[in-house]
Amino acid sequence: MIPSNPRVTKLAIYPLDETATVNKKNTTKQITPLYKKGMYSFLKTDSITVNGTIGFGIECFDLETKSTNPNGVFSIELLVDGKRVYYHELEKFTFEYSRFVNAHIDYAEKQTHGSKIQKCFLSKNNQLGIYKDVIDDGKITFNDDSTHLVTYLVKDYVGNTTEINLKVKSTTQAINKPLKNTPILNNCIETKSFNYPEATITVPANAAYDDYIFSYMKSIQPKGFYSNLHKIMNTKTALQKSVSIRLKTINLPDSLTSKACIVSINDKGKRTYVGGEYTAGWIEAKTKTWGDFAITIDTISPKLKPAFKFHKDSLIVDLTKEKQIGIIANDKLSGIKSYRATIDGKWVLCEYETKKDLLFYTFDEQYQAGVHTFNIEVVDDKNNRSTYTFMFKKE
Q1: Helices (H) and strands (E) in the chain, counts
Q2: DSSP per position, 180-199
Q3: Residues of the chain whose pLDDT is less than 70?
Q4: What does the pLDDT look like over 262-319, one tens digit per residue?
Q5: How far apart are CA 31 and CA 47, in angstroms?
Q6: Which residue of 57, 92, 245, 379 has the smallest Cβ count within 10 Å?
Q7: Residues with Cβ < 8 Å from 1, sequence gap 6 or more?
Q8: How far apart are CA 110 and CA 127, in angstroms?
Q9: How far apart are CA 392 and CA 362, in angstroms?
């Protein structure tokens, strides 16, 4: 059998500071290599000229697993002029560190286009522990007038290897754009608080993966909301830890303070519950994603309906052939916080399958036959309650 080597679908070249360039621009360059008969090549238009501190990335997958996630290949190695500058081996890492995968990949590219490019350089706060023999965090400085050979070596779990070679032309011609207002670069390993008249954002130490330039903008109050719209950073920037967001309410009635909450709002207007508690005119909540935030209220109780078929005019539902009692519980905003089920007034164990919005009780073998009353109460995160009661028989 002919070995199935890992397949490379994309290369990426990153300028890693404000003055670094790829093809005379301070923006990332992506290349799609041509593949034919086991060999990779590039178009003439894919020529690369670099200056300054540069990082490289690669999207690849194992032909056996058809997977483009970081588990798809066993190892990735990067060499520059034959010298190893980066290497990782990926077998297993604990669940505790799994979220650091967001530091390993090009998170912004994944969010924007769905690509899964693995960076061959390290973020400042990357604690995955899969890296070996990494020199200068895998970041290469190009400041001469020479051509350099960049080699990627990708292996699968049985040792099949794909090698791809990319020539880059280094230049001494740097861009020196004087910045009128040099933005403040915040250290990601320090706690930072950003205070505005209607918002306070606190970023704990090691919440971000790299040093960052913080951005904030206030927009007009959306219709039906109880605050202005607060644009905080952007959804293309990943977080390892939750950050605290505190927003000032506008015209929130005293009677609704217990129902008030922060939501994030995407480009299509969809609201996602963040949560929060009211204190003296402010709502404070924690989130692991950046975006656009505002204050709304949740006064709508969860909707409950049976997951089993029955005649609508039936006073007593026949569940003789059923193994479970299933109730679909749907809450559009804050989500299900708690539930309690009883049969004939006695508590019974009910389980919750969140992906299907399904609450279910499973009959045991010793269940007594006869007519019974089932009752369930469901409470969402803002203490809106719903109950569903019906009689059933079991023979």
Answers
A1: 2, 31
A2: SSPPPPBPTTS-EEEEETTE
A3: 1-3, 64-71, 92-95, 176-181
A4: 999 998 999 999 999 999 999 999 999 999 999 999 999 999 999 988 777 788 999 9
A5: 9
A6: 92
A7: none
A8: 20
A9: 14
